[in-house]
């Protein structure tokens, strides 16, 4: 099933100049970018994006980190894109991520974990719509 997912290359990975490496891995895995945007999130925009985590103890430090520097936001399309992207990223905690995954290569710890990916179709719809109006998505 062809589906869409949202990816964010987080401030830590942007600082490490890993944007190109990460997008190369998306393309090699059959995840085709249909929208790409580099931006700096305000704290409020990061809080809105991660609103489902509002009651978690890490919410403030997560949203402070996510607004600490530029990010690259991508909408990706491909066969089983959500699952495929999550496999490519590896476990949330880079220490537990399989060798060869993006988080194993570029993440430092569970907070500074290089990339974000949608976890379900409903989440992907919300997350893509949070950054991109439908008319900004290319057809590929
Ligand atoms: P992400 O895929 O962006 O979705 C939510 C984020 O919260 C997650 O990646 C981590 O960066 C962060 N996160 C999840 N669990 C923890 C935790 N226990 N401590 C700190 N940050 C966390």
Give structural notes:
- With 140 residues, this protein is α+β, with helices and mostly antiparallel strands.
- It has one domain (2-131): 2-Layer Sandwich (Alpha-Beta Plaits), CATH 3.30.70.
- Helices cover 39% and strands 20% of the residues.
- The protein contains 7 helices and 4 strands; from the N terminus they run βααβααβααβα.
- It has helices at residues 11-15, 19-28, 43-49, 59-66, 81-89, 102-106, 121-131; strands at 2-9, 32-39, 71-79, 115-117.
- It has a 4-stranded antiparallel sheet, sandwiched between helices.
- The model has no long low-confidence stretch (mean pLDDT 98).
- Residues 53, 58, 62, 92, 110-111, 113, 116 line the site of adenosine-3',5'-cyclic-monophosphate.
Helix content: 25-40%
Q: Overall pLDDT, averaged?
A: 98
What is the assembly state of the chains in this entry? single chain
Q: Note the beta-strand portion.
A: 15-25%
Number of domains: 1
Structural class: alpha+beta
Cα shape: globular
Question: What strand line-up does the widest sheet have?
Answer: 2-3-1-4
Going by CATH, what is the homologous superfamily? Nucleoside diphosphate kinase-like domain
Bound molecules: adenosine-3',5'-cyclic-monophosphate
Count of distinct strands: 4
Which radius of gyration do the C-alpha atoms yield? 14 Å
Question: What is the number of helices?
Answer: 7
């Amino acid at each position: 099933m062809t589906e869409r997912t949202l990816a964010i290359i987080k401030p830590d990975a942007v600082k490490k100049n890993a944007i190109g490496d990460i997008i190369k891995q998306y393309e090699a895995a059959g995840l085709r970018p249909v929208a790409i945007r580099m931006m700096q999130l305000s704290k409020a925009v990061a809080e809105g994006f991660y609103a489902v985590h509002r009651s978690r103890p890490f919410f403030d430090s997560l949203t402070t980190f996510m607004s600490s520097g530029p990010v690259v936001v991508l909408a990706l399309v491909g066969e089983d894109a959500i699952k495929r992207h999550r496999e490519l990223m590896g476990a949330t905690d880079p220490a537990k991520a399989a060798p060869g995954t993006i988080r194993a290569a570029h993440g430092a710890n569970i907070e500074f974990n290089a990339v974000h990916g949608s976890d379900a179709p409903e989440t992907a719809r919300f997350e893509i719509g949070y950054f991109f109006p439908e008319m900004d998505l290319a057809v590929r």
